[in-house]
Amino acid sequence: MIETEHLTRRYGSLTAVDRISFRAEPGQVVGLLGPNGAGKTTLMRLIAGFLLPSAGTARVCGHDVVREPLAARRVLGYLPEGAPSYGEMRVREFLTFVIRMRRLPAEHARQRFERVVAGLQLEDVLEQNIATLSKGWRRRVGLAQAIVHDPAVLMLDEPTDGLDPNQKHGVRHLIDAMARERTILISTHLLEEVQALCSRVLIVARGRLLADAAPHELEARSRYHGAVSFSAPGAGMTPEMLGRLPQVAGVEIDPIDGRITVFPRPGQRILEPVERLLREQGLELIELQLERGRLDEVFRQITLEHQAGQP
Ligand SMILES: Nc1ncnc2c1ncn2[C@@H]1O[C@H](COP(=O)(O)OP(=O)(O)OP(=O)(O)O)[C@@H](O)[C@H]1O
């Protein structure tokens, strides 16, 4: 479990993390989202005990990270931003070194080494110097060091940054598989990653926690929530007719691809009446979609509103 209370970090006059309180429980993958410079990395460094807070507290599995740093670090796996490691070491040497530092008993150490190497498919690079690995491979080695001691709490700063689509898929699968009994906090700029992985999202901007909700709760705040969109060449008068349906609040046509989006009035379901009208018109639909809401739009709305309200 991770718990923070009014956690704050100042750099001179800048407050990089501003009174952030949240709690992440076992079984949850919590996504940390925010614009550049929002304070995500600083927040993770505070929880990892790499930085001291200016005020407030952070606990990992009940251990205060300032007063009980060793106990807190023992149960924590951390992949820092950019996955720094020792370039001159070979991958095998580096992981063996981390295992030794973690003081795993010999039998368990062997098992964990094998599990992690297989899970992250590191077999082919074990004898390679870390400095000569590509960015994606270095990140996988960084992930390996974060999970090698099978920690109860895992904190990953942009874990799929620089990975190709197949590697991204593999790492997300791995995180998902580890999530069941662990508490996982990941920072990311990728909204599709939040949708694929996270049970909760924390949105931060300028050091402040602005939202703490499940992805579907955030999607429900989007103006696209419950809208119906479709592509239909030769739709002609159809948008106007759709606009006259009593359940419909408005219709928009994308100026680039011509896609039509129909918005419901509050509390109205419009899929059926829209489909019926389109059928009556005899339109050839390429596809029709009931929108869940768009996280990118909600993210922009929350973070820009906050920015506008700041001096
Ligand atoms: N050592 C430092 N000294 C002074 N200011 C710092 C220091 N470290 C971070 N900051 C500032 O604190 C703020 C938060 O930075 P942080 O790296 O935590 O943001 P972030 O959300 O991780 O950004 P990104 O998404 O770009 O990685 C930024 O304004 C940054 O310039």
UniProtKB/TrEMBL annotation:
Keyword field: ATP-binding, Nucleotide-binding, Transport
Keyword DNA damage: no
GO molecular function, one term: ATP hydrolysis activity
Signal peptide bounds: none
Any Pfam family matching the protein: ABC_tran
SUPFAM superfamilies: P-loop containing nucleoside triphosphate hydrolases
Domain (ABC transporter) ranges: 2-231
Protein family according to the UniProt entry: Belongs to the ABC transporter superfamily.
Protein name: ABC transporter, ATP-binding protein
